[in-house]
Amino acid sequence: MIYRATVKVQDGHFILMEFPDLPGCQTFVDLNVPESRKPYKVAKEALEGHVQTLAMLGKPVPKPSYSGPGMMVDLSGSLEKLIRDCGIWK
Which of 32, 55, 61, 73 is the most exposed place for a label (fewest CB within 10 A)? Predict the structure, then answer.
């Protein structure tokens, strides 16, 4: 399952990534910090953590629907299976 994150550069050195399908799911990367954490990796961690939290709380997980510009981030197969098995796709 692929979600799309919007990507905005702020103050010339921050990259803010937000997932429109998952209200409250956002993260950022400071480009002034050594490139040990790539934007895609940080976005994937935020996406998976947010979805896991929703699943643990028994809350519905919105299916991807945003088709605007942004970075495509893949949800891991095992997490996607867990959500499907629990029947909490919204």
Answer: 32
Q: Does domain 2-86 have CATH number 1.10.1740?
A: no
For residue 15, the one-letter residue type is I
Which tokens is 5 given?
């994150």
Closest CA to 66 of 8, 6, 16, 17: 6
The model's pTM is 0.87
Q: Are strands 14-18 and 71-74 parallel, antiparallel or unpaired?
A: unpaired
Per-residue pLDDT of the chain (90 residues; tens, 9 = 90+): 899 999 999 888 889 999 999 999 999 998 887 765 688 899 999 999 999 999 889 899 999 999 999 999 999 888 888 788 877 777
Residue boundaries of the structural domains of the chain: 2-86
